[in-house]
């Protein structure tokens, strides 16, 4: 069989080029440390490696979200802790100011301090988070969530409702809310543990009464929850039946009317005495002082109160003074009401802090879980795509030798000619 010179040249050149490509490929593997440079190197391994890379990037994003959420929640916990401390101070001031040892001047000092605390809480409610956005604005975090109108009333203008708070994914099936809206923290607080509230309407009969509300709560939960008792509004009415000949004090009776049910009499006329318990529809009230005939006390479903309005109300009550009996009873009623509202607010803030603590604990646990997952994923990917240097170096040496042999062979073949034998 005859073999042409062109065929010999082409075959030798192709062999040399193949060896050169193998040598270059192994060199690139050594330079990058990767066994799989293209999908052709290992189609199954390349597919699995790509999936693992996607999973690693997703887990890294979860970890970045975790790193965003943690300082944000820590900042919120600090702000709510500061609010709690300030409200504890207000509570002390209310108890102090409602004491008979205080005078108009000292009560004014107390009112001034309470208003100062209110202003400090307003600033705290508008504080910014670690990234410079407003902490309690919800999803509208680029604008201050609270504002004061011309009348001095505080209102919330941040995000509300569903979707008001941003949530970040910290795992494939786990999200965490970062923060709480200012509406939930400072404005939307149910008085008296969310059960019932009360209000005193003082009549105009002269002399004015010194009636005060000391306590309002639930005495029998089962009865309270029966029918519409929990949602109905009741009114305690008074009538004078005579005058005590020895003390010249009014002898009073009371009755309880269900005003939500068209004025149904719930409790008939009963002798009234100061600081005695009045029970009806699963509710309990304790009143002090002596009422007038046109005084009324309303027992109603709990209403929402705000931190700022609570502080404004008690400061106003202290500023009004207590120079006579009816002013003194008004102050007592306002103080008792504010203590109830403060206790409800403190309990509300305590629940929010507990929720934040739970979220932070979840973040801490998930951080460790994400770190372990990243190590596992990276290790698995490394086993698939990373280079075995010992094997690659040996192969590189063999391929270098083969390439040099192919190059020498090509040089020798290139020199072949019949003229060399003439």
UniProtKB/TrEMBL annotation:
Provide the Flagellin C-terminal domain boundaries. Answer: 341-422
What's in the keyword line of the UniProt record? Bacterial flagellum, Cell projection, Cilium, Flagellum, Secreted
Where found, per UniProt?
Bacterial flagellum; Secreted
Q: Where is the Flagellin N-terminal domain?
A: 3-139
Instruction: For this entry, list what GO says about its biological process.
Output: bacterial-type flagellum-dependent cell motility
State a single Gene Ontology molecular function. Answer: structural molecule activity
InterPro entries, per the entry = Flagell_FlgL (IPR013384), Flagellin (IPR001492), Flagellin_C (IPR046358), Flagellin_N (IPR001029)
Q: Give a Gene Ontology cellular component term annotated to this protein.
A: extracellular region
Locate the transmembrane regions by residue number.
Answer: none
Return the similarity comment: Belongs to the bacterial flagellin family.
Spell out the PANTHER family in the cross-references: FLAGELLAR HOOK-ASSOCIATED PROTEIN 3 (PTHR42792:SF1), FLAGELLIN (PTHR42792)
Tell me what this protein is called.
Answer: Flagellar hook-associated protein FlgL
This chain is encoded by the gene named: flgL
């Amino acid at each position: 069989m005859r073999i042409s010179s062109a065929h010999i040249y082409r075959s030798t050149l192709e062999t040399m080029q193949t060896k050169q490509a193998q040598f270059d490929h192994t060199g690139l593997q050594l330079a990058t440390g990767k066994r799989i440079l293209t999908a052709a190197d290992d189609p199954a391994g390349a597919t699995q490696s790509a999936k693992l890379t996607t999973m690693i990037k997703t887990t890294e994003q979860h970890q970045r979200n975790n790193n965003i959420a943690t300082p944000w929640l820590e900042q919120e916990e600090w702000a709510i802790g500061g609010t709690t401390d300030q409200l504890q101070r207000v509570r002390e001031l209310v108890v102090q100011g409602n004491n008979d040892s205080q005078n108009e001047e000292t009560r004014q000092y107390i009112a001034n301090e309470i208003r100062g605390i209110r202003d400090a809480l307003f600033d705290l409610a508008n504080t910014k988070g670690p990234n410079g956005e407003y902490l309690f604005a919800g999803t509208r975090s680029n604008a201050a969530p609270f504002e004061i109108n011309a009348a001095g009333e505080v209102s919330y203008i941040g995000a509300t409702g569903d979707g008001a708070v941003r949530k970040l994914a910290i795992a494939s099936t786990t999200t965490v809310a970062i923060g709480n809206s200012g509406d939930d923290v400072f404005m939307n607080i149910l008085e008296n543990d969310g059960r019932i509230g009360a209000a005193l309407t003082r009549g105009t009969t002269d002399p004015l009464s010194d009636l005060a509300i000391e306590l309002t709560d639930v005495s029998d939960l089962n009865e309270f929850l029966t029918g519409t008792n929990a949602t109905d509004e009741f009114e305690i009415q008074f009538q004078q039946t005579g005058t005590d000949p020895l003390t010249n004090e009014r002898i009073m009776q009371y009755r309880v009317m269900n005003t939500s049910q068209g004025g149904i009499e719930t409790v008939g006329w009963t002798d009234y005495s100061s600081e005695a318990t009045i029970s009806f529809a699963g509710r309990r009230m304790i009143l002090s002082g002596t009422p007038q005939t046109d005084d009324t006390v309303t027992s109603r479903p709990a209403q929402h109160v705000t931190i700022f309005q609570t502080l404004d109300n008690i400061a106003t009550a202290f500023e009004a003074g207590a120079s006579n009996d009816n002013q003194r009873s008004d102050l007592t009623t306002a103080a008792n009401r504010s203590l109830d509202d403060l206790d409800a607010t403190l309990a509300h803030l305590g629940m929010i802090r507990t929720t934040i603590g739970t979220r932070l604990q979840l973040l801490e646990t998930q951080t460790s879980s994400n770190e372990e997952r990243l190590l596992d994923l990276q290790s698995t990917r490394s086993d698939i795509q990373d280079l075995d240097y010992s094997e690659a170096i040996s192969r590189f040496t063999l391929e270098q030798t083969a390439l040099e042999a192919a190059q020498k062979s090509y040089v020798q073949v290139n020199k072949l000619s019949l003229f060399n034998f003439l």
